[in-house]
Amino acid sequence: MNTRDVVLIALFAAITVALGLAPRIPIAFLPVPITLQSLGPMLAGAMIGPIRGALAHVLVVLLVAIGLPVLAGGSGGLGALAGPTAGFIFGWIIAAFVTGMLCKAWSRGRRAGGRSGVWTDIGLIFLACVIGGIVVLYACGVAWLALVTGIGFEKALTGVLVFIPGDLVKAAFAALIAHNVRRAYPLDLK
């Protein structure tokens, strides 16, 4: 790990924190609000890779743990890491890692095969963001939500389905941003 890696990790942790400044939208029947912060792991994994993306979100979780108000709505502290949304917060680490691993693997495969294409690249990044930033993140968040609230896995899963359309839009934005930034400023996916 070099200075550049540390700077990128800190930068993407700051981006996730900054996304929390956008107003969150509460949902009446769920303790989990709609926020932009789930875009952070998608961007980090797709732009700086699995290890650095995951470490950026370890840093965010550490900032939450020491009580800094870095979560959407200005919350933070150990209470946030034990509440109903903690599975989503810890899940950012795994989501960024999985998104980055898929982007890295598919990027290598495309380079080795000599294939390229703007829409194919964007489509693969989008798919990586959907798998890592939605499927994996929801698996972590829903399991924790069901455990903490005692509402059961099926009911928790049904409740969070309302977030899918917005998260698909976030994945599309993440794919477009990551593709264009990587073209202008190529980074190794570490």
Average pLDDT rating: 91
Low-confidence stretches: none
Q: Work out the radius of gyration.
A: 16 Å
Largest β sheet strand count, sense and barrel closure: none
Strand content: under 5%
Order of helices and strands: HHHHHHH
Helix content percent band: 55-70%
How far apart lie the N and C ends? 10 Å
Structural class: mainly alpha
Number of strands: 0
Our count of helices gives 7
Shape: globular
Could you walk me through the main structural features you see in this protein, from its secondary elements to its overall organization?
With 190 residues, this protein is mostly helical. The protein is built from 7 helices and no strands. The termini are close together. The model has no long low-confidence stretch (mean pLDDT 91).
Keywords:
7 helices; mainly alpha; 190 residues
Question: What secondary-structure arrangement, pairings included, does this model have?
Answer:
Blueprint: H1 3-19, H2 39-48, H3 50-65, H4 86-113, H5 118-149, H6 153-160, H7 164-184
Helix pairs in contact: 1-2, 1-3, 2-3, 2-4, 2-5, 2-7, 3-4, 4-5, 5-6, 5-7
Brief synopsis:
The protein is mostly helical and 190 residues long. It contains seven helices and no strands. It has helices spanning 3-19, 39-48, 50-65, 86-113, 118-149, 153-160, 164-184.
